[in-house]
Amino acid sequence: MKISIHRNSIRHSSFLASNLRRTSIIQVNLNNARNYIAQVQIEPVFRTNEVNRDAIKAKIATIEKQKPFNNFLTDKFQRKHTYLRISLTEKCNLRCTYCMPAAGVELTPNEKLLTSEEIIRLAKLFVSQGINKIRLTGGEPTVRKDIVELVGELGRLKPLGLETLAMTSNGIALKRKLPQLVKNGLNLLNISLDTLDPFKFELITRRKGLERVLEAIDHAVALDFSPPKVNCVIIRGVNDGEFLDFVELTRNKPLDVRFIEYMPFDGNKWSQNKLVPYQELLKTLFNKYPDAKQLTDDPHDTSKAYRVPGFSGKIGFITSMSDHFCGTCNRLRITADGNLKVCLFGNTEVSLRDLLRNKVPDEQILEFIGMAVGNKKKQHAGMFELAAAKNRPMILIVTGLNYFTRLQMSPSHPYPFNSRLQLKNYTKHRDLRFYTTKKQFKNNLSTSIADNTNSNIDSSTSLSHINSSTGSASMVNITQKSPTFRTATAQGKVIIGEKAYKLIRENNLKKGDALSVARIAGIQGAKKTSILIPLCHPLLLSHISVEMNLLDYENAVEIIARVECDGKTGVEMEALSAVSVAALTIFDMCKSAGKGMIIKDIRIMEKTGGKSGVWRNEDPVEDI
């Protein structure tokens, strides 16, 4: 007799026990959102033994653990977040160039970091809402003295729904601790390794230790991780020549080697020239191994997987820059100082640590978490916008309070991320921190609070080009101002349609190389701003750059312009002029291929210098 167990129906063992004499279909919710069918073969009743009965009971116990996914971890794009990354420390025993600024980072005082008890409490809270995978990161998690014990405590959450307990390590101090970590519940491991050359290893990490990392990888293979993953950040001119050497690692070892596109973080000197897009690596792969095959990825996989036939392992490409996977993102992050980040590249954070230490009940903490998740954006910005935006250094996806603004919350004001949810009984917690790198956020919030409470709004702001007494337009007098170094970065895009986009990509436009011509036109536009815009001051510009980025998913050209000068007034208008003229040039050169083009989203992304200092636009424009 055969009993098939499917999704969403009767869950109780009594029903199964009383119906062994006939075929039944029982639907259950397995693995939250996945379509998964478990087939259980059962002998006829007269031959059913205790082993079969125990197997049935174990399966039912597994089924009964499954809980409906909680809305607190579902965003407005219906992405269910089941994966939580917890940074345990900002300390690291390496100094990788792409991760930590050369000058180092200022360490956060220990009392401002999450304690082990706070980490366990938050992990348990997230697991209760549907998180089934937790990854421990850093810094380097193995430098934490209680790492083995902490993994043991987190391993106790598996009966509550946690399925995967993972760790990302640089491998330096891992080998000796690994057996006990596995015993305590660690069942997935990523080891970072960017070169197989000892000399280059020392250049990249500013430390020695390649042999210890390779020993840790071999030890992980011996412990039957399925499989150990090796993370390799590819940087042009540094280690891109070793790509095939890493592929060869998978010939005789059951490794999953993942090649990560170089990403911009504060202090790592990212530039497009250092980025090696995965399509370029794929071409190299197929030139060497023409029979390499793409594998089927899980919907939430960040890696595009490939295997060379006959090899023991596989490789993958993590394409955050050239082909983002935001649409299936299921990841949340907690930094070592207790801030919740809903996006790696986002710079708005919520301090869960302060909620814990202000003795906020779990139910109310969940409201904060739910509102943060609910306001997660559809996708992160393009690569040039990411490069221009402020974000923590990679090592400090743990702390960095100098980057964030402390906001005093009003108990009468809703959560400051435009959430429709309201906080309850919040009058005791006015000093919790909501962080953003957007400098004007605090002022905007104050204005919003005033709107909601019918208070008087500060009306001191005036238009600088209007004479307050006569109402006539005039040029701002900057005679008494002192020159300072000023910069501005602007961005915009031209949606040109499939036909024109293909012609631009293949450089087959009748009028010639549109991107090169538009770049020159943008530079000219910046220099002619004072002629085009009547009240702008003529400035002696010291540098102008105009970059183009092809956006395959929109059939669009993204334009980024940066302008610099030593002067008495800002260069925002020059940057905007550069983008605008470049966009118009692309329009002009492509109009024979279609006139339905759209120029959109022209805006300032960043300005520095002058009395007002640094200002950044942290909110990518979303399609409505």
Automatic annotation (TrEMBL):
Q: What does this protein do?
A: Isoform MOCS1A and isoform MOCS1B probably form a complex that catalyzes the conversion of 5'-GTP to cyclic pyranopterin monophosphate (cPMP). MOCS1A catalyzes the cyclization of GTP to (8S)-3',8-cyclo-7,8-dihydroguanosine 5'-triphosphate and MOCS1B catalyzes the subsequent conversion of (8S)-3',8-cyclo-7,8-dihydroguanosine 5'-triphosphate to cPMP.
Query: Sorted alphabetically, which keywords does the UniProt record give?
Result: 4Fe-4S, GTP-binding, Iron, Iron-sulfur, Lyase, Metal-binding, Molybdenum cofactor biosynthesis, Nucleotide-binding, S-adenosyl-L-methionine
Q: Which organism is it from?
A: Ambispora gerdemannii
Into which family does the record put it? In the N-terminal section; belongs to the radical SAM superfamily. MoaA family. In the C-terminal section; belongs to the MoaC family.
Q: GO molecular function of the protein, one example?
A: cyclic pyranopterin monophosphate synthase activity
One biological process term from GO is: Mo-molybdopterin cofactor biosynthetic process
SMART domains, sorted: Elp3
**Annotated PANTHER family:** MOLYBDENUM COFACTOR BIOSYNTHESIS PROTEIN 1, MOLYBDOPTERIN COFACTOR SYNTHESIS PROTEIN A
Protein name (record): Molybdenum cofactor biosynthesis protein 1
Q: How does it assemble?
A: Isoform MOCS1A and isoform MOCS1B probably form a heterooligomer.
The residue ranges of the Radical SAM core domain are: 76-301
Alphabetical list of Pfam families matching this protein: MoaC, Mob_synth_C, Radical_SAM
- Enzyme class name: lyase
Query: Which pathway is it part of?
Result: Cofactor biosynthesis; molybdopterin biosynthesis
> Might you give the EC number(s) for this enzyme?
4.1.99.22, 4.6.1.17
What InterPro entries does UniProt report for this protein, alphabetically? Aldolase_TIM (IPR013785), Elp3/MiaA/NifB-like_rSAM (IPR006638), MoaA (IPR013483), MoaA-like (IPR040064), MoaA_NifB_PqqE_Fe-S-bd_CS (IPR000385), MoaA_twitch (IPR010505), MoaC (IPR023045), MoaC_bact/euk (IPR047594)
Its required cofactor(s), as named, are: [4Fe-4S] cluster
Question: Which catalytic reaction applies to this protein?
Answer: (8S)-3',8-cyclo-7,8-dihydroguanosine 5'-triphosphate = cyclic pyranopterin phosphate + diphosphate; GTP + AH2 + S-adenosyl-L-methionine = (8S)-3',8-cyclo-7,8-dihydroguanosine 5'-triphosphate + 5'-deoxyadenosine + L-methionine + A + H(+)
